[in-house]
Amino acid sequence: MTIRVAVAGATGKMGRLAVRLIEEADDLELHAGLDSASNLDELDGADVVLDVTHPAASQGIVEAAIEAGAAVVVGTSGWSNERIAEVERRLRDLDEAPGVIFVPNFSVGSVLGSAFAAFAAQHFDSIEIVEAHHAGKVDSPSGTAVRTAELVAAARGDAGPVAAPHADQRARGQLVSGVPVHSLRMSGLLAEQRVILGGDGETLTIAHSTISSSAYETGILLALRRAATSEGVTVGLDALLGLELPGAR
Ligand SMILES: NC(=O)C1=CN([C@@H]2O[C@H](COP(=O)(O)OP(=O)(O)OC[C@H]3O[C@@H](n4cnc5c(N)ncnc54)[C@H](OP(=O)(O)O)[C@@H]3O)[C@@H](O)[C@H]2O)C=CC1
Ligand SMILES: O=C(O)C1=N[C@H](C(=O)O)C[C@H](O)C1
């Protein structure tokens, strides 16, 4: 069966990459490529909508895709657990709900980095995240950092909140699920994240660098193929890779 995919954000960096992957794949077909001026009616008839747009536009595109009965893969950043829960409630109201997969990061290495941080989180009380992205990134903290912080907090369970002393001072970063996150936006790099865990007499650093957007290819294809048959809300490529993270939804 051929999966017809509409790409929202087709003129952007991620969208152009996705369009090329779809055109090269035998089992995928480009149904439509949308940009910021497109009419969302173009989503009608798609099996799967891939959203790689802008945090301010993403919610409307997901809603339109659900209305059109298409499954959705959301790569756009800026989705918190609370906003994802709203989509979950929306799907529960429908008789025949398509699946929606949120993928904060399509890179397998990045997803493993976040998973390792979640596994380590029960053993260290000091945990902070430093993420760095290209200067063109409009949102901060990154979606990956938000997801990592949420996974770390969920994994700690009975260990309680992370120690975040003096967190009322701006230079101590933004607390996400109680984890301080520090964002850098600068020329010369694509995307990096370090999770630094501090314990008794030692630190552990889990670092990941994206050096080319080709890192996203495997994850994009996996998510598009799974979306067509998915049900309800799925969060993270970790779920599609079969990783079982402590406390994760
Ligand atoms: N999940 C992941 O692994 C990754 C996620 N991302 C995220 O994906 C998103 C896109 O990133 P990137 O491709 O680098 O961004 P770009 O700025 O290169 O592209 C943005 C795209 O979105 C479209 N767009 C912008 N505003 C709107 C709007 N209001 N309505 C509809 N479409 C709109 C643009 O259309 P136009 O050309 O008309 O302006 C363009 O096609 C970001 O949120 C980024 O954080 C990025 C990399 C990896
Ligand atoms: O904007 C980007 O470039 C990226 N955005 C995603 C995020 O917010 O985490 C994924 C990746 O880090 C690249």
From TrEMBL:
Annotated catalysed reactions: (S)-2,3,4,5-tetrahydrodipicolinate + NAD(+) + H2O = (2S,4S)-4-hydroxy-2,3,4,5-tetrahydrodipicolinate + NADH + H(+); (S)-2,3,4,5-tetrahydrodipicolinate + NADP(+) + H2O = (2S,4S)-4-hydroxy-2,3,4,5-tetrahydrodipicolinate + NADPH + H(+)
Domain Dihydrodipicolinate reductase C-terminal as annotated: residue spans: 114-240
Subcellular localization: Cytoplasm
Active site: H133, K137
EC number: 1.17.1.8
Single GO MF descriptor: 4-hydroxy-tetrahydrodipicolinate reductase
Pathway assigned in UniProt: Amino-acid biosynthesis; L-lysine biosynthesis via DAP pathway; (S)-tetrahydrodipicolinate from L-aspartate: step 4/4
Main location: cytoplasm
Residues that bind NAD(+): G9, A10, T11, G12, K13, M14, D35, G75, T76, S77, V103, P104, N105, F106
InterPro entries in the record: DapB_C, DapB_N, DapB_N_CS, DHDPR_bac, NAD(P)-bd_dom_sf
Keywords: Amino-acid biosynthesis, Cytoplasm, Diaminopimelate biosynthesis, Lysine biosynthesis, NAD, NADP, Oxidoreductase
Uppermost EC category: oxidoreductase
Domain of life: Bacteria
Domain Dihydrodipicolinate reductase N-terminal intervals: 3-106
Binding site residues for (S)-2,3,4,5-tetrahydrodipicolinate: H134, G143, T144
Function: Catalyzes the conversion of 4-hydroxy-tetrahydrodipicolinate (HTPA) to tetrahydrodipicolinate.
Similarity comment: family membership: Belongs to the DapB family.
Cross-referenced PANTHER family: 4-HYDROXY-TETRAHYDRODIPICOLINATE REDUCTASE 1, CHLOROPLASTIC-RELATED, DIHYDRODIPICOLINATE REDUCTASE
Self-association and partners: Homotetramer.
Protein name per Swiss-Prot or TrEMBL: 4-hydroxy-tetrahydrodipicolinate reductase
Gene: dapB
